[in-house]
Design a protein that fits this description.
The complex is a heterodimer of chains A (about 300) and B (about 325). Chain A is mostly helical. Chain A contains 13 helices and no strands. The chains are: A mainly alpha (about 300), B mainly alpha (about 325). Chain B: It is found in: Cell membrane.
Chain lengths: ~300, ~325
């Protein structure tokens, strides 16, 4: 069985293979550590300033913008944490992300299955339709989508009005990732299932779905992350209580621009979910990204 | 669009009665599996893209029927529009600038991280953190850091005896676009680092051992072995970067909204501005089509020049 090229082998520690190689050129050079420190500071610095800024007062920030909290104050975070708008935005982001993810994974799996394991005329043409979809980013269609969703479908300011178009634009990627994965399942499995009296639908349900779980998780994580970060379409379609977290953060920061400490706390709190999600799924996200480029 | 369920190939030679029933069942199954995805795709991707094309040849303010057919006049007015021309220039600056900045930086950091050193795993996670944040959140943070005089950046500069522009880095026509480019580099540098590291690990160890035996220095090894073998990864990354830069919107909208004095507009901020704030849907449609054509031409050209060699070599 050949592993599909689009997916990196799941959960293989990247450092494992590397241990013990290139000893002759290995570190020990203090300059290397200094450089590493500079890089780490540059990457993490802005994020830390925001997080720490949330623990300071506006007076402290005005006096020395880049300083350490002295004393540490908690009320900025407490205010953000008890702000109903924050939970409203988080809830909307979660709901839209969940709908997008489920639709992408379910519809993508369903479409990829016959494209991978049925032989029928027009199969490649159909696959090409989906591949061509990769060429159309949502930005090109943003304005017509806005009109379609708000005027023709009456779905502006709803979760579905954002989730369905987002799912549609993620479907091509999902089909492109899932199809080779399903195609790589050995034919013997299918034959055995047929001998046991299973139909093709039964094979899909009992064999394909359990075996393709890792690929489905990858597609799901990609869909969710894209939805979680989306800005343009929500900006065009959502207002008030229906706003998602990115919209809410951007609006909060311009609305309360005088309260910099408050903005820092609100922003820091809202980047927490994405960071946690990344740390939990780090290997799969990283593997998926690397695999997509290698393949 | 292609109808998904044409008569299947297999079973065509089997006996009539049972065969055609089985074919019929198979066609129904294919339809069942493919229809939801295809319907969603048609409704939310194909229809809006075609609508953009249709809009682009009418003068339309967003209500009432499409009546006022103007042919290619919207295209002419977009292409001769100073703001749009500027937007194309800014977008191209970001496309080229991102690659020119991130390629050497990403390569250098990947080579550094590929050496055996303490805390390497942690460092890898750290350099990837900005990539994980959403563009909007990164933008909001940098907007605060870049505040004129009282922001962290200007304070740091002041500490070493420099002063930023009085209106701030984002408020000055000469600096705003370059500031955005730097923030974008900070945000997206994690991706090339990650991809180059993966590429580095797939280079055979024997090559390095052989080079070591020949007495090659670290730098010679990198230049003669690592960088050439990393070529395909670099070219693929640059392609992704280019496509991403052409769609640039979020960061600009958060940091400058295209200002000051249209000095940071991109193609997407132009079309959003025309479509939503001015209600010039015909103009927005034409700008969408032009953006798509530019992106397509660049993608195909890039593929022809850089990527064809890689796919041939890979033998796929």
């Amino acid at each position: 069985m050949t592993t599909p090229t689009v997916l990196a082998p799941p959960a293989e520690p990247a450092t494992g293979r590397q241990r013990g190689r290139r000893d002759a050129y290995s570190g020990g050079n203090p300059l290397v550590y200094v450089l590493a420190l500079v890089i780490a500071a540059a990457s993490l610095g802005p994020v830390l300033i925001a997080v720490l800024g949330g623990f300071r007062t506006n007076a402290q920030l005005a006096q020395n913008p880049g300083g350490w909290p002295d004393p540490w104050v908690l009320f900025n975070y407490r205010d953000a944490f008890t702000n109903p708008a924050f939970w409203q935005f988080t809830g909307n982001s979660l709901a839209i992300g969940a709908i997008t993810t489920v639709v992408v994974v379910v519809f993508g799996m369903m479409a990829a299955y016959p494209l991978a394991r049925y032989r029928f005329r027009g199969r490649e043409a159909l696959f090409t339709v989906f591949v061509a979809g990769l060429l159309f980013p949502a930005t090109v269609a943003a304005i017509p989508l806005f009109i379609l969703v708000s005027q023709n479908m009456g779905l502006s300011n709803t979760w579905w009005g954002i989730a369905l178009p987002q799912a549609a634009f993620t479907l091509p990627l999902s089909v492109v990732i899932l199809r080779p994965f399903i195609a790589a399942l050995p034919n013997e499995l299918e034959d055995a299932a047929m001998v046991d009296g299973s139909s093709r639908i039964g094979f899909f349900w009992r064999i394909v779905i359990p075996l393709c779980w890792p690929a489905m998780v990858t597609v799901g994580v990609v869909a969710f992350v894209q939805s979680w970060h989306a800005y343009l379409l929500p900006l065009l379609l959502l207002q008030g209580d229906m706003r998602t977290l990115p919209l809410g953060v951007a609006d909060y920061s311009s609305e309360y621009s005088a309260d910099i400490a408050g903005v820092f706390a609100f922003t820091s709190l809202s980047m927490l979910p994405a960071l946690v999600l990344f740390l939990v799924f780090q290997k799969r996200i990283v593997g998926g990204l690397q695999g997509a480029v290698k393949g | 669009m292609k109808p998904p369920a044409e008569p299947p190939l297999t079973g065509a030679t089997t006996r009539k009665g049972r065969g055609s029933r089985r074919d019929w069942r198979k066609a129904a199954e294919i339809l069942f599996f493919v229809t939801p995805a295809l319907a969603l795709f048609a409704l939310f991707v194909i229809v809006p893209v075609l609508t953009a094309v249709q809009m682009s040849v009418y003068r339309w303010r967003g209500f009432g029927p499409l009546e006022d057919f103007v042919g290619f006049r919207n295209y002419a007015s977009v292409l001769t529009n100073d703001v749009f021309q500027g937007a194309v220039g800014h977008t191209m600056t970001i496309v080229v600038g991102s690659i020119l900045l991130q390629l050497p930086l990403g390569l250098g950091i990947a080579l550094l991280l590929n050496r055996k050193m303490k805390g390497q795993g942690l460092l890898r996670t750290i350099v990837f953190v900005p990539f994980v944040l959403s563009e909007v959140i990164a933008g909001v943070i940098w907007f605060q850091l870049l505040q004129p005089r009282y922001g962290v950046i200007d304070t740091l500069l002041e500490a070493v005896g420099l002063t930023g522009p009085p209106q701030g880095w984002l408020g000055d026509r000469d600096f705003a676009l370059w500031t955005i480019l730097i923030v974008l580099t900070w945000k997206y540098l994690g991706l090339p680092i990650l991809l180059f590291l993966a590429g580095l690990q797939s280079i055979s160890e024997e090559l390095y051992e052989a080079a070591q035996l020949d007495g090659a220095t670290w730098w010679q090894t990198q230049r003669k072995i690592t960088i050439p073998l990393l070529g395909p990864t670099m070219r693929t990354w640059a392609f992704l970067s280019m496509i991403g830069s052409l769609q640039l919107f979020d960061m600009v909208w958060v940091l400058t909204r295209g200002g000051p004095a249209n000095s940071t507009t991109t193609m997407v901020t132009f079309l959003v501005n025309q479509g939503t704030e001015r209600g010039n849907y015909g103009i927005a449609g034409a700008a969408s089509v032009i953006l798509f054509v530019i992106a397509l031409v660049m993608a195909i050209t890039y593929q022809r020049i850089f990527l064809r060699r890689d796919t041939k070599e890979a033998g796929r």
